[in-house]
Amino acid sequence: MIVFSFLNHFVLVTFFIGTFAGGLYAQDKKDYPDRPIKMVVPYVAGGAADITARLLAQSMSQSLNQTVIVDNKPGANGNIGAEFVAKSPADGYTLLLTASGPLVVNPVLYKKSPFDPIKDFSPISLVISYQYAVVVPTQSPIKGLTELVLEARKTPKAISYGSTGIGGGGHLAGELLALMAKVEMTHVPYKGAAPALADLLGGQLSFTFEPLVTATPLIKAGKLRAFAVSSAKRSKALPAIPTLAELGYEGYDISQFQGLLAPSGTDSLIINKLHSEVVKALKLPNVIKRLVDDGGNEIVGGSPQEFTHQIQADLKLYGKLISDAKIQSE
Fold first, then answer.
1. Please, what is the angle between helix 169-181 and helix 304-324, to 10°?
2. Architecture of the 30-130+257-324 domain
3. pLDDT per residue over 181-196, tens digit each?
4. Mean pLDDT of the chain, nearest integer
5. N or C end of the chain: which has fewer CB within 10 A?
6. Is 298 helix (H, G, I), strand (E, B) or coil?
């Protein structure tokens, strides 16, 4: 009887402790966030992903009544910042706002990846999809895409283009053009979009595949001239600019995404709350104007499940392009 009473007492105490702890855990999630959130961007400031991150951070800071800090951690084509988030605590206070590269290009480009794009992250939301424009500085003597390709054919490797690095979206877009046009061009990798754009404007590069979010304002200001866009459909921001497919490169289609993720294992209550915040932010007039009207992006706001499917599909797509173009990491 004494043993029985002791066991009953132990079970009751354990039950109440577990119930109390579970209640605190649930309450913690309901109180989220109770301290600042860090949104890591794995690129230098001023690029397309950085612009999106700062728009989201501003909206989420106001809506959540908590500071959301944008933290730029560039390097290794986005791997440094992505790895930092993958290895951070899964508590919802360290997030990753990234373009496609670290998730769907780097894992097939590099022999060893510091993280698994499926296993090491909890997708929160697809944010936007975006395309690139083939642009030259307005002072360039090259007046169109046909002339650009003819120059590349006449003098192999004389035509140069910059990107955010080997395997970056602009690099892959350039390699696909070179494959389809059967020309050789010189790719110049940079540590971010801003320095590549600066060299383009300064005349050190022949052209770039520039994300529309950064290219569109400069095109409208008369500082850049656009020859074509990289997606299958024309951009709403630049409806007069033809697609590469329209200019004779049938089937050419390079579109990428930006998305928000957390470390794997982050509680679903937090994931769902953050997803709702992203969707809310993407409906704001100032966000729509900057990302869509001025930037030519398409709002997605896709669910965590849709984001996972997008990553899986793009891993196959870019794996084939990297193989066909024989792209190798440094």
1. 40
2. 3-Layer(aba) Sandwich (3.40)
3. 999 999 999 877 889 9
4. 90
5. N
6. strand
- The CATH number of domain 136-229 is 3.40.50.720: no
The full set of domain ranges for the chain reads 30-130+257-324, 136-229
Encoding tokens for residue 121?
Answer: 């992250």
The residues near 223 (Cβ < 8 Å, ≥ 6 apart) are 137, 138, 201
Cα dihedral value 82, 88, 92, 97, nearest 10: -10
Q: How far apart are CA 184 and CA 157, in angstroms?
A: 5
pLDDT at position 3 is 47
**3: Cβ contacts below 8 Å, ≥ 6 apart:** none
Q: Where are the alpha helices (DSSP H) in the chain?
A: 2-31, 48-64, 79-86, 101-104, 106-109, 145-154, 169-181, 193-201, 212-220, 268-281, 285-288, 304-324
Please say whether the dihedral angle defined by the alpha carbons of residues 200, 203, 204 and 205, taken in this order, is positive or negative: positive
Output the pTM of the full model.
0.78
SS3 string of 47-106? CHHHHHHHHHHHHHHHHHCCCEEEEECCCHHHHHHHHHHHCCCCCCCEEEEEECHHHHCH
Residue-wise pLDDT for 157-173, tens only, equals: 999 999 988 888 899 99
